[in-house]
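[scheduler] slot 2 assigned
[scheduler] job type: sequence-to-structure, two independent chains
[scheduler] chain ordering preserved from manifest
[runner] begin chain α
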Amino acid sequence: MTRYINILLLASFLLQGCSSIKGLFGKKSIGDPNDPDFLNKVQELKSAFRGGNIRALDELIEVYQENNHIPTQREFDDLSNSVYRLKKELRSLRKEMQTLRSSDDE
């Protein structure tokens, strides 16, 4: 039962997003508008994208999403990976329960 409570707490923590996790560690991302160099960093990303760096566009999109409290692609990927692992673990637990029940019946 405690395992399920831990899983539920972990899932709710993941749903809150990476920005809250970054806030716990005090790490400032490029998306912090209180940073004096925020606009300079955004301009650098724009220039990098224009120069052919596709990852710079991803970073710009992530900055916009974090500032507007929209889940980022990375957060969706982490969440779907967590759900996949939880489903896999649940299937293995169900199999264990079935084998235990079948051994009890014998």
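[runner] end chain α
[runner] begin chain β
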Amino acid sequence: MHGQAVAVGMIGTARISQKMNLLANKDFLRLKKLISRAGLPEKIDMVDPMAVIHAIEHDKKNKEGKTNFVLISSPGKGLINQEVAAEMIAASIVEQDE
């Protein structure tokens, strides 16, 4: 169960990175394909974006009311403490079927 959640989180983070023009579309699609080939889920059905945002807002990594993520600019290259707006998080959850 934890590995499945990590896989979905990786795709969500990659989607946010892509939407913020940090990650190339080809790298996003490659990540999705690798996760799928490993037999891991690419999405979670029927997720309430506001429930996810509420949980993130209460996460220990949330500092001073800012929602920070480790985003990616290319495979193997992380960008630490990147602030992501709640609207961007919600959009990445809603668009998980694309």
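[runner] end chain β
[qc] chain β: The beta strands are 68-74, 77-83.
[scheduler] slot 2 released
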